[in-house]
Amino acid sequence: MHRESKGVELCRDDDGGAAMTFTLTRKQLYELVWSEPKQRLAAQIGISDVALAKHCRKLGIPVPERGYWNKLQAGKPVIRAQLPERDLVTINRVTISGELSDELRARLTSEPGNTGEEESIEVLAERLRNRLGKVAVPRDFSRAHRSIEALLRKDEKLREECAQRPYFWNKPRFDEPFERRRLRFLNGLFLAFEKVGARPWLRGNEARQLGVQLGDISLDFQLDEPSKLRLQRRPLARKAKNPQSLCLAITNTRTPTPGMVMDWQDEDGRPLEKQLVEIIVGMAVAGEQLHRQWLKELAEWERKRKEEERKEEIRRKADAEKRERERIATLEKARIDGLIRDAACWRDAANIREYVEAVRMAASTGDTINVEAWAEWALSEADKLDPVASGHAIERDDQTDRRSTPEAQTQRMENSGDPLDPRS
């Protein structure tokens, strides 16, 4: 599996809460550790100075020697150690649990985790080749890698069991010539990997699950007969001439780009043992190519995500503006409808008053008391109905105006929790 991490994110701490992490490149961490004493820098980030020093060792970053900052403060000459050049096995990114403040960000020459323009793979490969030097597969196991030594001890125990119990079913795994050769090559490969700081690993009693951490990249690979390899999405680059030949193949599921070398096998006069340097450098090159391919895909995914967010924001604003237009149209319609109703009520009130006057004029002298009582009630109802006399017309219009003001819209935004939601 091809595994990387990049960016700033939230992770879960031991208590199940959210903990902030951030990613820096090797150069960026170097810039920070040479900007102030590591105790103060670690405190700003929120980690111990021991943890900070561990990150620096892991990435091969030199740190100021003891007394450096006192000499600098006193105006004495000091030497700032240069950051060693990286190669294909150098870890180039680190994810740190803590917080990268704005002040610390300002000290960086690029965005956190962004390597900028990468050096050519050819240059990085040549540096690795020079650092690797001459390596060879040992003829025996007198110098065994600890993982290989553990398998040999298990085989020795099985051999003792078989000697005591002739029909014991669990036989040693690496007594057959092919398996013995396979284990010897694996031992040489692991020793060479560790020489340049890579971290190889294996799982299973037969060492069929293999992998190596090369800088920022983890590669899975198989070492076996060609017919036993389980490759996904691709065949071997060349068909094996000998079914018993030894073949090493990178098995990461990511589809390789054209020209990417992903497997090596015995050739006429050149068994895998004589290709050890080529294989180690080639695996590191393939890992870097896969890593850059992944970064390119990640950048494209991020671009699409941001574009989709931008489109969604446009849609959200358009929907909010549409709702606001509909709300204003509803208010305007309600205002007009209210105006029409008020005018009708005003006419009805006027009709009632005229009617009251007509009744008064038509009433006989003896009915004055009853007529006036009725007239008082009728005129009171007319006043209630009359929007002018009651003041309801102005009040209702004032309320409509207030609901349309920017202050009212701001209040609705605060109440809704959505800055673009016009609903109250």
Descriptive tags:
single chain, 13 helices, 8 strands, disordered C terminus, 5-stranded antiparallel sheet, 424 residues, 3 domains, alpha+beta, 3-stranded antiparallel sheet
SSE order and pairing:
Blueprint: E1 9-12, E2 18-25, H1 26-33, H2 38-45, H3 49-59, H4 68-73, E3 93-97, H5 102-107, H6 121-132, H7 146-164, H8 177-195, E4 199-203, E5 209-214, E6 217-224, E7 247-250, E8 263-265, H9 276-362, H10 368-385, H11 387-390, H12 392-404, H13 406-416
Antiparallel strand pairs: 1-2, 2-3, 4-5, 5-6, 6-7, 7-8
Taking the sheet with the most strands, its summary is:
5 strands, antiparallel
Residue-averaged pLDDT, rounded? Answer: 86
* Beta-strand share of residues: 5-15%
What's the SSE pattern? EEHHHHEHHHHEEEEEHHHHH
Radius of gyration: 41 Å
The domain tally reads 3
Instruction: Determine the N-to-C terminus distance.
Output: 52 Å
Strand order of the largest sheet: 4-5-6-7-8
SS-based class: alpha+beta
Helix content: 40-55%
Count of helix runs:
13
> Based on DSSP secondary structure assignment, what is the total number of beta strands?
8
Backbone shape:
elongated
Q: List low-pLDDT spans.
A: 1-18, 416-424
